[in-house]
Each structure stands twice: as C-alpha cells, then as structure tokens.
Fold these 4 entries.
Entry 1:
Amino acid sequence: MKNIELKLVFSEYELSELSDDDKNLYARAMDAAKAAYAPYSGFSVGAACLLDNGEIFTANNQENAAYPSGLCAERTLLFFVGANRPDQTIVKLMVVIKSKLKDAKKVYSPCGACRQVMAEYQNRQSHPIQLIFESGENKVLVCNKVDDLLPYIFRF
Ligand code: THU
C-alpha cells in the first residue's frame, strides 16, 4: 500500500487585483446573474466564459417548479457554447453569485454535476479551462484546470 497525495493549486485574488479582462468577465457574469430565473431558491448565479477567439458568452441558472428539471448557470452556459461554438476552445470560466442569501465569507464553488460537465468540455478540447469563482469578501479563487476541482476525472 502507498498513499498518493494530490496537489491542487488555487490562487486567491482580491477583485481589485484581477486583470482588466478578468474584471470585465466578472462584471459580465454579474450582469448575467441579474437575469437568472431563480424564484424557488432565490439564489442567482451568473457564469461567463472567454473563448480563444475572444468571444464572451454568459448564462445563469434556470429553475423549474419540478426542481430537478432546472439547470445551473455553468451547465446552461457550457451546453450553449457546445451547441453554438463546437469548434472553439473555452479558455476560462467565471462563476459569480448575486443573492441576498450570499454569505460574504463563503467560498461558492461549482457543484459536482457542473464540474463533471466542465471536465468533459476540457477533455473534448484538449485544453485546460481556467476556473474562477467567489471566495468571499470581494475575493475570487482561480485554478488553472478542472482537475483541481475534480481530481481523478472519469475517462474511458
Ligand atoms: N447553482 C448554480 O447555478 N451553480 C452551481 O454551481 C450551484 C448551484 C444554482 C442551482 C439552483 O438554481 C440554485 O443555484 C440553488 O442551488
């Protein structure tokens, strides 16, 4: 038997430390969160991604009275990009929260199902996707690949 230790790398930034491009992506994600359809949870999530051709797409969570039929912001966005820009590479994906329920001290990282979908897109494009998400008090966490949020990604 041997123990295997994995190294996951995250960088924490103050929002003010982000590049202008990342600040813009954050603002675009926040803007998208405003149009979330989240009447059941009251928890609006916004997502924005940058493609390698420079295009930015945004989306938000879409809930449903039949709760499991709703979809997270990240998957709404990824499936849209997959459907409309199948040959483009997703360079980075920003996820933000806009809600009275938001606790300024909490980290809000993408859910497991969204991580799995991110992993599929990263694998499909053979290029890492940088993930940026809320880390409380005007901070974000950045990791440079989905593997840091989903070690031992399923592949076959
Ligand atoms: N939600 C997202 O949009 N992304 C996540 O990564 C986690 C949760 C949404 C789903 C639901 O509409 C609301 O947040 C509360 O769970």
Entry 2:
Amino acid sequence: MAKDVIIACDFADAAETFAFLDAFVREKPFVKIGMELFYSAGPEIVRQIKSRGHRIFLDLKLHDIPNTVQKAMRVLSALDVDIVNVHAAGTIRMMEAAREGLMRPDGSRPLLIAVTQLTSTDEQTMQKELLISGSMDETVLRYAQNAAAAGLDGVVCSPLEAAKVHACCGEGFLTVTPGVRFAQSEAGDQKRVTTPAQARALGSDYIVVGRPITQAPDPVAAYRTCVKEFLG
Ligand code: C5P
C-alpha cells in the first residue's frame, strides 16, 4: 500500500460524519472509524462510508482472550474494511487468533496492525502505572517484534519510533502513526507528537490525523496541507 494520510473521523454520529465527508468533493480520503462512531452508528456506517469509495481503517483496538478476539474478528472481516487493529499487549497468541479470525473464505483479509503504546502515554506514565520497566523505545520495538512474530502487517506507533520499527521488523512492516500536529497547533492529550513533514522524514507509512483536520476552520484545506507536507 502506498503512503497516505488517514483522517480520524472521531465524530459522535453518522450525520456529523457525513456533513464532514460531504465537503470533500475532489478527493476520497482514507478514513479511520474509531470507537465513538462505531458504537453510536454501528456497522452500517462502515458499509455506507465504504460504498462512497473511501478506504477504511476500523480502529477498535481489540484486547481480550484469544477466542473472543478471533470470533469478533470474524464478524469484522465481513465488513470489507482495509485495516483493523488489536492491542499488542494482548499477547502473540491473541494476535495470531485475530489474524486467523480475519481470514475470509476466499483467503483474503484486511490488513491487521497492533497498537504498541498509545501516543497519549509517555515513558514515565508507562513505567509508573503500567509497571513496564523498559524504555518507551524498547517497549515499542518488543511489541512490534511480537506483532511481526504473530504474522501481523504492522503496528500503530508514534512517528518518533517508525524508523526503529522498520529497522527491526523490515521496511515492508507498516507503521501507522497518530500523534501528528501542524507546527502551530495544540497537542491536546497527545504526548509523542511530530509534524506531517517530520513523520515523512522519519519514514511513517500512514499518518492518522484527527483534530488538526476535523477541528480546522477549513478541514479540506487542512487535509490538503497535510497531504502536501506528508507526501511531498
Ligand atoms: O485528534 P488526533 O489527531 O489526536 O487523533 C488521533 C487518533 O488516533 C484518535 O482517533 C486516536 O484514537 C487514535 N490513536 C492514537 N494513538 C494510538 C492509536 C490510535 O492517538 N496509539
């Protein structure tokens, strides 16, 4: 898959989402549907957005026992999304179960990636609250190696870790990176952030951008700026 900008459509309902997407007349952005929208609008919104021609990253971050994750992934695989994800913290066995559950009868499946550490978590919080004693880099890299061992296609990490993930898991192992902010914008709750241009220089495959686009006075212009900065 080519590099791209994925817009995090973190909206409350279908009406808000379509009002946002209707503004894009020239392009069909790759969109991310997260928990808020999926829980409020259900699988139908995925089908509707897909039928409009968008690629979809369904960001539900599954994390449960392997059997439950496998069965849930079987349901999601029927939705024809392009990327889905799990938490790498669920273990290699859980990630393998997710991959098995996603396989469609024709042998195809969506790309499957694993969250390493949320970009809202900094190293100190990870060590103090999650009792992970390694550094952020060590933890992200080990979780990425676990995801690769489970046969996943890549990870969600900060752009700051993308080059190291590629170095240890291969250039073809996808790095999907939230935590992106324009030079002049607010970080909000994100801790490990870069600009789209920095993400590009660091080798991110996909940047996931929410509020800097969705809350911009002109979201289409913000999206175009982001694409220009990231893809060059
Ligand atoms: O608004 P913002 O650009 O911070 O949105 C980032 C999006 O990426 C959110 O939808 C968030 O759930 C998601 N995400 C993240 N960090 C991760 C995984 C997903 O911020 N590790």
Entry 3:
Amino acid sequence: MCKKEIGNRYKIQHYSDLADEDRILIDNASNATSNSYAPYSEFSVGCAVLIDDGSIITSANQENCAYPSGMCAERIALYYAGCVIRKNGTDYRNIKTIAISAKDKYSNLATAFPCGACRQAMIEFEVQRKKQPIRILVHQKDNSVAVFESVKDLLPMSFDF
Ligand code: THU
C-alpha cells in the first residue's frame, strides 16, 4: 500500500494588490451579482470571463423552482463564450482568465469556489485551448483573492480520455 496526497496550488493576493487587468475582472464579476436570479438560495454569484482579445463576458447564477434546472454563473459565461460568433477573427473560446465574486443574502461579500461541474466545464476549455492555461480568480469574503494559475490547480486528477 502506498499513500498519496494531492492538493490545490494557489496564491492569495489582497484585492488592492491585484494587477489592473485582474482587479477590473473582479469588479466585473462583483457587479454581475446584481444580475443573479436567486430567490431560493439568496446567494448571488457573478462571473466575468476575459477573452484573449480583451473582451469581457459577464454572467450570474439563474435559479428555477425546479431546482436542478438552475445554472451556475460560471457555466453560463463559459457556454456563452462557446456560442459567440467569431468576431474579427477572435475565437471567444480563447479564455484567459475567469473571475468569480459572490454575495450572501445580506449583500455581504461571500467566498464561492466553483462547484465540481463548473470545474469540469472549465477544464474542457483549458484542454482545447492549447496555448496558456486559464487563470481563475476567486474573490473571498475578506476581500482577498485566491489566484489559480491553471484549472488543473483547481481540479487535479480531472477526467480525460
Ligand atoms: N453557484 C454558482 O453560481 N456557482 C458555483 O460554482 C456554485 C454555486 C450558485 C448555484 C445556486 O444558484 C447558488 O449558487 C447556491 O448554490
């Protein structure tokens, strides 16, 4: 028998220490929480996706009275990026960074790490994009940001053929 351990590699930066590009993306994710439809959980998640050409796509979680019919903020943005018609030769599947910010029912900043299904959706984009890995920024309730340099750092041992 041999015991093994795996973990998540990430760094923590305070919001005010972020590079402009990252801070703007966190702001976009935070503002996007206002588009959340979350009458059941009262938990608003906003996501902002930075494309290689500098475009930003934002999204927010959308719930449904038939609970499983709802959708997480992250997958809404990712699948939208996959559907955007190529503009000026830009393939919107070329995602550089994904930022996530959330608010609880009192509108206080909350920490929301992407769920397993969203991580799996993210890794599909990363594997297809053969250039650099996709970065993930998770806004935390103390206004620090967890920075993952690759989806693989968020989802080690992911499924692959
Ligand atoms: N949610 C997201 O939008 N992203 C995640 O990665 C996890 C959870 C949403 C789903 C639901 O609307 C609410 O947060 C509470 O689970």
Entry 4:
Amino acid sequence: MKKGCFITFEGADGCGKTTQSKLVQEYLEKSGYEVIWTREPGAKGLGQKIRELLLHYDGDVAPMCEAFLFLADRAQHIEHLIKPAVNAGKIVICDRHTDSTIAYQGYGRGEDIQQLKYLNNLATGDIKPDLTFVFDVSTEVAQKRVGSEKDRMESAGLEFHKKVRQGYLEIARHEPERVKVIDANNDIDKVFEDTKKVLQSFLDLI
Ligand code: TYD
C-alpha cells in the first residue's frame, strides 16, 4: 500500500461500532500497518470542547446549530488529524464521520439532505472515506445496549433512532461501493469475522 487510506465506522447508537473499530485497529496493527484510531465528535483539542456542547448542553439546540457544530468539529478534525495522517501513509480509522450527519441530522432530524451533503463537502474539502462500515442492528436491541444513562443525542427517542437506522440503510443503498452493511445483531466474534472479510477484500484491491 503506497498511500494511506481512510476507513469510517458508522451506525446508530448501541450498534457496537466502537468495539469493532478497535478490533480492526488491533488486527491491522498486527498485520504491520500503521494505524490511527480517532472519532467524531471530539477527537482532540477544540473538538473535545465542541463534543461537550453537543452531548451535554441541556438547553434547546436548533437543529441547524447542532449540524454546524458537528461540521465545525469535522473541519478541524480533517485539517489537523485525518488529512496529515492519510498523507503520511497511515490507515485512519474514524468512529463516525460524514454519514452520521446525513443519518442523524438529515434522516433523523429532518434537515435537508442535499444541503447537508454540500456542507459535509465544505467541511472536509471533499476528502471522502475509502471504505465505510455501517453496523446495522434492530433499534430495540441497540437501545437496550445503550442502557439508561443517555447523553443528549441518545435521549432523542425510539422513533428518531428508527429513522437514523433507515437513513444509514438508504446511504448504503445509494453508495454500495463505498458503504458496506454488517449485520450487528450477531455476537461480537461473528460481527468481527464479517467485518474482516469485507476489510480483506478492500485491502486486496489497494
Ligand atoms: P458518542 O458518545 O461518540 O456515541 P457513539 O459511541 O454512539 O459514537 O456520541 C456521538 C453522538 O453524536 C451519537 O449519538 C451520534 C451523534 N452524531 C450526530 O448526530 N451527527 C454527527 O455528525 C456525528 C459525528 C455524531
């Protein structure tokens, strides 16, 4: 592999993507790749302050304010972490990225999806993930996994999370080359086996 690449992990709250992204990181490192694991919102520095606002502010938040905060975090993240790491030949694993904005603010909150796509491109300077995993799990199972201590986004209700789930499936339907859906209703080992298969075919091609 001559240049680095950018892989994102997506799915509704409680889908298990963070666990899978860490397993993938370990697997790739053991295979000799240099890997950076990161996340949105709030990878580091200013992003962490934005994350605090997004997840724990307890007053009213206008939907487009919410969207712009996620986008502001993304612009900072791309410029200060993702772009330099990919250019240095590393594999960047990112727990949530642009598709979260489309699924949550677009399909979930009902903001205009074309506009959000445009704003995503503006925030990322048109850098796109080379591969995206969507971990799909029934909303009821996902909500049980989240438990009772919920942050602002997790408290948005069952109907909202159902729309988010459908949103991810729509995204995957529109971009089947980039976005791969993994059935995350299974146990961790089986989900990881399925993830590794997709990952290996991707790595064989680059
Ligand atoms: P986090 O604690 O990181 O949750 P998870 O472990 O599920 O990733 O919280 C991030 C929350 O922010 C999550 O509910 C999804 C939401 N989110 C958006 O609504 N839009 C976005 O663009 C991003 C990146 C996240």
